[in-house]
Amino acid sequence: MKTRILIVDDEVDALDLMEELFNKHGYETFTARNGVEALEVIREHEPDIMISDMVMPEMDGIKLLEIIRKKYPDISVIMITAHGTIETAVDAMKKGAKDYILKPLRLDEILSKVDTISQLKSLIKENQYLREKLSQKYNFNNIIGKNRKMLELFDLIKDIAKTNSTVLITGESGTGKELIANAIHFNSDRIKKPFVKVNCGVLAENLLESELFGHVKGAFTGAIRDKLGRFEMANGGTIFLDEIGDISLNMQLKLLRVLQEGEFERVGGTETIKVDVRIIAATNRDLQELMRKGEFRQDLYYRLNVIPIEVPPLRERKDDIPLLVTHFLTKFNEQFNKNIDSIDDEAMQCLQEYDWPGNIRELENLVERAVVLNKTGRLTLKDFPPYIVQKREPALEVEIDSDQSLNDLVDNFEKQIIMKALRENNFNKLRTAEKLGIHRSTFMSKLKKYGIN
Questions:
Q1: Which domains are delineated in the chain?
Q2: Do residues 102 and 83 touch, judged by C-beta distance below 8 A?
Q3: pLDDT value at 453 more than 80
Q4: Angle between helices 321-336 and 359-373 (to 10 degrees)
Q5: Has residue 129 got a pLDDT over 80?
Q6: How far is CA 362 from the centre of its chain?
Q7: How confident is the model at residue 440 (pLDDT cuts 50, 70, 90)?
Q8: The predicted structure's pLDDT at residue 296
Q9: Most buried of 2, 17, 117, 321, CB within 10 angstroms?
Q10: How far apart are CA 121 and CA 187, in angstroms?
């Protein structure tokens, strides 16, 4: 979209000259002979930039500027003034003009000033558009889920988004930890500042240190210039440290200092740099187990774990699978220009019975594959890999044996129930006991009774 420029001047020659200049360089132009005409043009077209002479009949440039700053603050104003009235131009700048041009007019100067303002306005519009799109994408309403655990999670995110507290997100791979980190930032007061992501698990220690804190020229072989670190890039905003459980003890110590003091030095540098950054960390590892092994610092853990968020795996929120499938169907229909309107009941039942070790990411990938390959407009079992069907849990059955007492039959059935619940909860005993609604000690006694190790 072309930048629109309004030129206001009572001298016809100056009007024609500037109009020809801007049209030639791809701008859309409007003209007015005085301030009254200019306001009529603004009401109809609302330009991006206005260039106005100071001295005009009916309404001078200063009066026009005051009206525009009040009613149309998004219009950038450049004032034209004679050499003898520079003080008036300075006054105009104080009242909100972006710049001024001295007569006699120099076309290269006019074009340069307009180009600069136009580029800046385009950048602002683009950033605003991107923020709006990201805000829509990471709106709480777009994190799919009606499961009780997910609804509780949404409430927690809403409560903490507006704070500056450090957040630690835990959960298995593919559960949507990064999506939650995005939602926290884009619903916080830091939304207009950067959101910087770092995957700590994919970089060697020396590369990670340079990535996080930056380096100075000559700090190591290949450091041919100064480099900003991610913490500096995120200043005023949020940094998301993914796979935080994979960093070395040495890096943990350096990260601890940033959390405690909000300061660091670049690699090879001596200048202490202070930053204001909110930290959101995430991991799929058991940090408490790592602490017991001496592989993760306790002081860093407690600094990170100010507000803990545990994201449940998909197998614990299977009632959300129909919602997620519908969401992904809509997404991939649009992406691949397809028109798949439904999924049959048998296929949906299989998807809900499968345990999803890869969680939401695995489900999304399989729906994408199904949408791409489907030719009927309706998803069925044939659109999904065989292992989805093969993994279906057999129905619980009790084989009646005339030699068994009723107590033996009940015990056999109870053992099947416990084994099934353990599989569904990835053999986590505490979680399984909670799922079955029995006390942990009672559950442990039953495991011992049935010889389940």
A1: 4-130 (3.40.50.2300), 142-312 (3.40.50.300), 315-390 (1.10.8.60), 406-449 (1.10.10.60)
A2: yes
A3: no
A4: 40
A5: no
A6: 20
A7: confident
A8: 96
A9: 321
A10: 25
Percent of the chain surpassing pLDDT 90: 45
Structure tokens at 199: 């995957």
3 state SS for the chain: CCCEEEEECCCHHHHHHHHHHHHHCCCEEEEECCHHHHHHHHHHHCCCEEEEECCCCCCCHHHHHHHHHHHCCCCEEEEEECHHHHHHHHHHHHCCCCEEEECCCCHHHHHHHHHHHHHHHHHHHHHHHHHHHHHHHCCHHHCCCCCHHHHHHHHHHHHHHCCCCCEEEECCCCCCHHHHHHHHHHCCCCCCCCEEEEECCCCCHHHHHHHHHCECCCCCCCCCCCECCHHHHCCCCEEEEECHHHCCHHHHHHHHHHHHHCEEECECCCCEEECCCEEEEEECCCHHHHHHCCCCCHHHHHHHCCEEEECCCHHHCHHHHHHHHHHHHHHHHHHHCCCCCEECHHHHHHHHHCCCCCHHHHHHHHHHHHHHHCCCCEECHHHCCHHHHHCCCCCCCCCCCCCCCHHHHHHHHHHHHHHHHHHHCCCCHHHHHHHHCCCHHHHHHHHHHCCCC
Summarize pLDDT for 324-350 with one digit per residue, the tens: 999 899 999 999 999 998 899 999 999
Whole-model pTM?
0.60
